[in-house]
Design a protein that fits this description.
Helices cover 40% and strands 17% of the residues. The protein has 15 helices and 13 strands. A seven-stranded parallel β-sheet has the order 3-2-1-4-5-6-7, with helices on both faces. Strands 10-9-8-11-12-13 form a six-stranded parallel β-sheet, sandwiched between helices. The protein has 393 residues and is of the alpha/beta class.
């Protein structure tokens, strides 16, 4: 088949981008003719697109809207940066959608595809962002058009009226977990028949390549690690600070918690850790191009989110044999099975802390669960790829 994937930009970070690159890698040895349109014409130097995938570059104006100024400044000339600054001011004044619709008038794709996939879902919470669904709908000729939703549809601001209008011309709407499908179906029961579930995939060769024998942790301690966007609205990184404070009060010895990632709350949380007197046990190391060794050499991977769709980092952690401790958001049980490949606890500081103390004192339990992790990640990945192939056929 001739298949087109559409994304806004490729910044080199984030679960959506990782899941797409993994899927393309899993498809690269098939007979499908694969293309990817990057609407904003921005591909991070750290993003590795498989060589057999045709790349269609988009519109620079969309790039100026969607990419942070600090990232643009690394590749644009001074005159181009002035143009980008003007577009960002215009976006703030009139919003992104009018600019997008103007750009789409000159972005028609003359090729015809068997399947066109809007892989980065549009968002309507607070302000409109995205544009991939509009591009696939208005600019692409395809036998089947598919939209992907990568999180809780309510958190994207989707309502029944928006869904009815937006997904009318799409053959399928893919959700990345059964929990997310349930939410979508509740929003618009009329489209339940076109609502499907395909979980995120991993590309195991890439993870194996990124593993390292040397540990990134300098001390022989009980290491907790979190790899996430550093923000409190969804990821609830603020819970980690409260956990660290309580772990110190309860007297846990010889331990450290490392947070890998960047985000809007990073500087504030780092300062708060100092103010709380926990910066000796909590370290924010920022964004890493290869976070796999941190997961590989940790004793436990901890996720403190309020909600997730289908967490890529959990599957990655399982594949490097590290058990996961996660909060009880809707889709957590789609990946984690208690006492098999990890543990699910309530969204409570006390429950997280009690489980960490218990596991630190019972290494034999960690070892037993660790033996199941790789097996479970392979089973989950096989199921995801099977669901995707079924959708194609």
């Amino acid at each position: 088949m001739k298949i087109l994937f559409v994304v806004s930009v490729l910044k080199g970070i984030g679960g959506i981008e990782s899941s797409l690159i993994n899927l393309l890698n899993n498809l690269k040895d098939t007979q499908h003719e694969l293309s990817i349109c990057v609407m904003g014409d921005y591909i991070s130097p750290s993003t590795e697109i498989p060589s057999n995938v045709k790349v269609i570059k988009g519109n620079k104006i969309i790039k100026y809207c969607c990419v942070e100024y600090k990232d643009l400044s690394m590749s644009l000339s001074r005159i181009e940066l002035l143009g980008a600054a003007f577009i960002k001011i215009l976006k703030r004044l009139i919003g992104f959608r009018p600019i997008l619709l103007t750009c789409l008038k000159v972005m028609k794709n003359s090729e015809k595809y068997d399947i066109a996939i809007s892989y980065s879902n549009d968002m309507y919470r607070d302000v409109y962002s995205g544009g991939c669904e509009d591009y696939v709908e208005k600019c692409i000729k395809a036998e089947k058009k598919i939209a992907w939703i990568h999180n809780d549809a309510r958190e994207h601001g989707l309502t029944q009226s928006i869904c009815k209008k937006k997904y009318n011309k799409f053959k399928y709407v893919v959700n990345v977990s059964q929990a997310c499908k349930k939410i979508f179906d509740e929003i618009i029961p009329k489209y339940e028949y076109k609502s499907k579930v395909i979980t995120n995939t991993l590309y195991f060769d890439d993870i194996s390549r990124k593993k390292r024998d040397a540990s990134p942790f300098s001390d022989n301690k009980f290491n907790l690690v979190t790899v996430a966007r550093v923000e409190n609205q969804q990821k609830r990184i603020d819970r980690i600070l409260e956990c660290c404070k309580l772990l110190k009060i309860k007297g846990l010895k010889n331990w450290k918690w490392t947070v890998v990632g960047d985000g809007p709350d990073l500087l504030n949380l780092k300062q708060k850790a100092v103010d709380m007197g926990i910066d000796d046990v909590l370290e924010f190391v920022g964004r890493k191009s290869n976070p796999i060794p941190f997961m590989q050499h940790a004793n436990i991977f901890v996720q403190t989110s309020d909600y997730e769709a289908y967490s890529m980092v959990l599957i990655e952690s399982l594949y490097v044999s590290t058990p996961c401790l996660v909060t009880n958001y809707d889709s957590a049980s789609n990946i984690i099975r208690n006492n098999y490949n990890g543990w699910i606890v309530e969204k409570s500081i006390d429950e997280l802390v009690d489980k960490i103390i218990y596991l630190s004192s019972n290494p034999e339990i960690l070892n037993a669960v660790g033996e199941n992790c790789i097996k479970s990640s392979k089973e989950l990945n096989k199921k995801a790829l099977s669901s995707f192939y079924n959708l194609l056929s």
